[in-house]
Automatic annotation (TrEMBL):
Name of the molecule in the record: Quinone oxidoreductase
S-adenosyl-L-methionine recorded as keyword: no
PROSITE patterns: QOR_ZETA_CRYSTAL
Source organism per UniProt: Asticcacaulis aquaticus
Domain Enoyl reductase (ER) positions: 11-319
Keyword annotations: NADP, Oxidoreductase
Phylogenetic lineage: Bacteria, Pseudomonadati, Pseudomonadota, Alphaproteobacteria, Caulobacterales
Pfam families named in the record: ADH_N, ADH_zinc_N
CDD domains documented for this protein: QOR2
Length: 321
């Protein structure tokens, strides 16, 4: 039998329970995967709370790495013993699970399972933000909210590699210093400083704002964008962006706005492998390093969610089966 985290109702971290589940044999096109490391991401809390809809009961989690134990009929490019990582298949908070083989990406030699699990969703997010939603280069100045978070630390390093001027916000002096060590040119402590005034002091205005905070930063973010600038909303840790008059985008400079996701940008296997290849190449060359300050036992997923929502984490957080 296999142990897993389950939620039988939506709510706070207290709805997460440690239970025994049945994991059968893989069917055609499937594999049985034994997890070695499981990524914890803010999107997991959205499913747990009911902000993002899912059937009940369910096992949370969208990211994991592990070793293939068995393969089903028709699986030809993977074999038992292969190390793989995935994102976007709900149900990762488990010791083992059945997975579609086409969702799995081989982990390159030289990259550990823990680094792969910690970096995959967050790194693919940084990849589409910097390389496709807005193709960042040396001529651009960008603002990133929550710079000391898991995506933020990877984003800062990647943006520096691309030559951009990178401004970040964070919620404590310690987080500001951590972000500074990970590629940011300018940091703003949003608890003690007005980030709009500080951005104006630093650069005037910016080409693009990347925002995973939501409600608390939305209005100010529009105020720091250049005419024709882009506001990228890819999360809502402080709550959803409230309803607004779309005319404000006109009055503030004919602004653009988008709400992308890592899943929307990696809809097919060829694109997923290309995105993963770019991420793993930068990690392998040491251009991006992955911070894993927090690990929890899988059975302690509730504590991991409490820490994440309490903004008590930096970098990536893992569950270890």
């Amino acid at each position: 039998m296999t142990q897993a985290i389950r939620a039988h109702r939506h709510g706070g971290p207290e709805v997460l329970t440690w239970e025994t589940v049945e994991v059968g044999a893989p069917g055609p096109g499937e594999v049985r995967l034994r997890h070695t490391a499981i990524g914890v991401n803010f999107i997991d809390t959205y499913f747990r709370s009911g902000l993002y809809k899912t059937d009940l009961p369910f096992t949370p989690g969208n990211e994991g790495a592990g070793v293939i134990e068995a393969i089903g009929d028709g699986v030809t490019d993977l074999k038992p013993g292969d190390r793989v990582v995935y994102v976007g298949s709900p149900g990762s908070y488990a010791e083992a699970r059945i997975m579609p083989a086409d969702k799995l990406v081989p982990i390159p030699d030289g990259i550990s399972d823990t680094v792969a699990a910690a970096a995959f969703l967050k790194g693919l997010t940084a990849q589409y933000l910097l390389r496709r939603t807005f193709r960042v280069g040396p001529d651009h100045t960008v603002l990133y909210h929550a710079a000391a978070g898991g995506v933020g630390l990877l984003f800062g390093q990647w943006a520096r590699h691309l030559g951009a001027t990178v401004i970040g916000t964070a919620g404590s002096d310690e987080k500001v210093e951590l972000a500074r060590q990970n590629g940011y040119d300018h940091l703003i402590n949003y608890r003690t400083e007005d980030f709009v005034a500080r951005v104006h002091e630093i650069s005037g205005k910016v080409d693009v704002v990347y925002d995973s905070v939501g409600k608390d930063t939305f209005d100010g973010s529009l105020d720091v964008l250049k005419p024709l600038g882009l506001f990228v909303s890819f999360g809502q840790s402080s709550g959803p962006v409230p309803p607004f008059d779309i005319g404000v985008l006109n009055t503030k400079g004919s602004l653009f706005m988008t709400r992308p996701s890592v899943f929307g940008y990696n809809r097919d296997r060829a694109t997923l492998l290309e995105s993963a290849g770019e991420l793993f190449d930068l990690i392998g060359r040491g251009i991006i390093t992955v911070s894993i300050p927090q690990t929890f036992a899988l059975k302690d997923a509730r504590a991991a969610h409490e820490a994440l929502e309490g903004r008590a984490t930096t970098g990536s957080t893992l569950l270890i089966p």
